[in-house]
């Protein structure tokens, strides 16, 4: 509502407070790194990945369900995550030969890899089979190609799952429909020892719990049917799609209720349906708990009970949820221009390093302004008093290259040389769409590692690892995710 003719400021959407990210932001190191790299960069907090993975495993253990977690590698290309998977004995979901090579090259065992994606190349099918990876077969011709591939003498048969076209999402281009499944099952039964048919899988769009439990229940029934045909069929994969909760419920709902084209550069129009659900009451490993506790349609027992009773292993492929709060993206402001009551910032990178824009949407959690002298007075949450709205554009000649169309209500006026830190960007934002457009370098990734010798009772004054990637009494320790090529 306008007070004394002054329109209310554009709404903000602060990300959930995060001490580990705040520690990095407050360290002063980000400006040094921006100077060193001379362009945008991302920072990663692998201990967060470890914690998210542990939470998924705890959800399985608490439900008494035997299961395996495969990190969906497409969500972020960094080496750090697959190094963590290798160290923890977790799996990786890959969808290309490049991703498969990366996973194997960082020590993930072939048997811990699941290969997804449509119409896989001959090379991908061949290497997957040779490495003992599990291939999620997406079509009948792929099944033919996988089973017909020549095998070295004594090599084990190819391991496969049959990916199911979700009946509730018939428009999906992935998976086998009912008739194709029948044919695929008959094919596997005929093939005998030449294939190892381990079960069924799906990946659903959206984040709802019940449809996942419903389809998982159906897949358990399919496993029982396949076992009668002499097939192994002892596991199902429920894919990914575990939501991430970026922001508080109140902030999210009031943002959706108030946002309108006047809050965006060029009066760009977004409807609530255009946005990722930045608040989710049930997210991450809690979503897995909810799926396991739900009763699949037509049944009486929870999914967890069905899995236990039928001796069925549960596989899952979370991407975004394993990366929750595990990284942020840092841009330096290199231009500030005033326009009709707001500022247009130009940063030293592009929206290709904040992918949401490329899905006709917007990454909404507020970026944090970090001037060289230290973090600005704060967002609305931390009590900043001023309101200085600004959108953020990329350093390209494209009208549409905006990292944020929204006029973000900054607590102080942004200046050239300030950093803009977008929080919680590891899941799909950092590098899915990155491009060296305009010969701009790809943003490097900086890792803040926690180490095993972290201790709270050190007696000397040397910097001590706090276990969260920062040091007590010292600077964060950092390294590049990948060493520069010689
Ligand atoms: C087959 C498959 N598995 C897993 C995922 C990961 O999904 P999310 O990152 O939402 O968990 C995807 C995402 O597209 C997928 O296609």
From TrEMBL:
Record's compositionally biased regions (Acidic residues): 450-463
GO MF, one example: alanine racemase activity
Domain Orn/DAP/Arg decarboxylase 2 N-terminal: start-end pairs: 54-250
Matching InterPro entries: Ala_racemase/Decarboxylase_C (IPR009006), De-COase2_N (IPR022644), Orn/DAP/Arg_de-COase (IPR000183), Orn_de-COase (IPR002433), PLP-binding_barrel (IPR029066)
Enzyme Commission no: 5.1.1.1
Matches recorded under Pfam families: Orn_Arg_deC_N (PF02784)
Keyword Isomerase tagged: yes
EC category name: isomerase
Keywords: Isomerase, Pyridoxal phosphate
Region Disordered: start-end pairs: 448-486
Listed cofactors: pyridoxal 5'-phosphate
Domain of life of the source: Bacteria
Name under which the protein is recorded: Alanine racemase
């Amino acid at each position: 509502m306008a007070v004394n003719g002054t329109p209310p400021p554009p709404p903000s959407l602060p990300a959930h407070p995060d001490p580990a990210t705040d520690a990095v932001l407050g360290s002063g190191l980000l400006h040094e790194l921006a100077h060193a790299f001379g362009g945008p960069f991302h920072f990663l907090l692998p201990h967060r990945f470890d914690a998210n993975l542990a939470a998924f495993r705890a959800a399985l253990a608490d439900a008494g369900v035997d299961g395996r977690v495969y990190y969906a590698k497409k969500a972020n290309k960094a080496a750090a995550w697959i190094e963590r998977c290798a160290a923890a004995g977790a799996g990786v979901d890959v969808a290309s030969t490049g991703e498969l090579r990366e996973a194997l090259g960082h020590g993930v065992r072939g048997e811990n890899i699941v290969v997804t994606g449509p119409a896989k190349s001959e090379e991908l099918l061949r290497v997957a089979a040779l490495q003992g990876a599990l291939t999620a077969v997406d079509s009948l011709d792929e099944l033919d190609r996988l089973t017909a591939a020549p095998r070295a003498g004594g090599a084990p048969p190819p391991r496969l799952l049959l990916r199911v076209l979700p009946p509730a999402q018939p428009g999906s281009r992935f998976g086998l429909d009912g008739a194709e499944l029948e044919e695929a099952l008959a094919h596997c039964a005929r093939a005998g020892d030449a294939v190892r048919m381990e079960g069924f899988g799906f990946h659903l769009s959206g984040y709802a719990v019940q449809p996942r439990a419903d389809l998982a229940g159906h897949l358990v029934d399919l496993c029982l049917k396949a076992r009668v045909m002499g097939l192994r069929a002892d596991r199902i994969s429920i894919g990914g799609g575990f939501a991430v909760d970026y922001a508080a419920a109140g902030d999210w709902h009031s943002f959706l209720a108030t946002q309108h084209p006047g809050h965006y550069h060029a009066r760009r129009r977004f409807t609530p349906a255009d946005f990722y659900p930045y608040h989710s009451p049930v997210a991450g490993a809690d979503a897995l708990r909810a799926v396991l506790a739900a009763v699949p349609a037509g049944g009486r027992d929870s999914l967890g009970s069905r899995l236990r009773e039928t001796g069925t292993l549960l596989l899952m492929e979370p991407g975004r949820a394993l990366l929750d709060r595990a990284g942020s993206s840092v841009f330096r402001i290199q231009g500030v221009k005033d326009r009709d009551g707001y500022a247009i910032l130009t940063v030293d990178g592009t929206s290709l390093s904040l992918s949401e824009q490329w899905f006709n949407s917007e990454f909404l959690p507020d970026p944090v302004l970090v001037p060289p002298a230290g973090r600005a007075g704060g967002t609305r949450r931390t009590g900043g008093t001023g309101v200085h709205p600004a959108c953020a554009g990329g350093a390209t000649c494209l009208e549409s290259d905006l990292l944020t169309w929204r006029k973000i209500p900054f607590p102080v006026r942004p200046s050239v040389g300030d950093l803009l830190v977008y929080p919680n960007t590891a899941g799909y934002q950092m590098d899915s769409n990155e491009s060296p457009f305009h010969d701009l370098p790809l943003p490097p990734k900086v890792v803040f590692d926690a180490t095993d010798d972290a201790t709270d009772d050190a007696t000397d004054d040397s910097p001590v690892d706090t276990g969260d990637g920062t040091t007590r009494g010292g600077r964060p320790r950092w390294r590049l995710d990948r060493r520069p090529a010689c």
